[in-house]
């Protein structure tokens, strides 16, 4: 863990202690289980967003994708009587294809990620509403899918399976990002894409893969959310989820400039965000202020990131000045050899 991650972990512990003192219900098993479930749901979404952010991009359409893919999954399973074992991989493939399309538009047609994903946000939301005729998609009374419900909304030894899935995905993505050549390439692209291209990295392919990973994890998250709510209103389902994902990534140390961040950080960012949401609920603060809390969290995260960059830049300048001064003093102390000619 880097210093940022340790600092964030300490902050989570401090906030948790404060919340528990203010309202002891925070430590009730049912509240901890519900919080862990939400951490799993939003954590998977945030990891996908993090892979895009590290390249210097942004993915604004994840909330609308959660709605569209969730509607399709529920329709396939509950209405079309498709086996969930077939519907699940089909939705995952569809999410990956959408991510690939975004990556292609950004890398091949040189469109801005903000523009591409903003258009996706509007298109997928409209498609979800059109598909259901602006109605609600859900499971009929008495419809049960025991295996699917256990995997997506059940618990193992009291721990929500969504949280277990987040831990497994986080471990896999940690290896991909921090222990593979692909991960090093993503960091290089985020730091300086042009320099990475000149060094021989196929930047277009790497960026497109990052968007595919984001689309895949968004699709998986959409299935979990669909089974969690069991009823989807396409006009509101998944609304502003992209902000949750961005906030968690920024809190976790991912710079919106790209090239920085860790998987541990984004998971801790998700934990802190849900902890703050839980604090708002337990203190009886109106739920309408949730978005205000999110906005404040993102702003604080960006300010901290900016100050962190400024401090690091000053340290580099001071270090370079000291090295230059030491070099000059060493050169001046060398004996001067007289010319014999």
TrEMBL record:
Q: Where in the cell is it found?
A: Cell membrane
Instruction: List, in alphabetical order, the Gene Ontology terms for molecular function in this entry.
Output: transmembrane transporter activity
InterPro entries per UniProt:
ABC_BtuC-like, ABC_transp_permease
* Chief localisation class: membrane
Listed transmembrane segments: 6-28, 35-54, 60-79, 86-105, 111-128, 157-177, 208-228, 279-304
- The answer to whether the entry has keyword Transport is no
Sorted UniProt keywords: Cell membrane, Membrane, Transmembrane, Transmembrane helix
**A single cellular component GO annotation:** plasma membrane
> Which residue stretches, if any, does this entry annotate as coiled coil?
none
| Membrane-related topology note | Multi-pass membrane protein
The protein here is known as Monosaccharide ABC transporter membrane protein (CUT2 family)
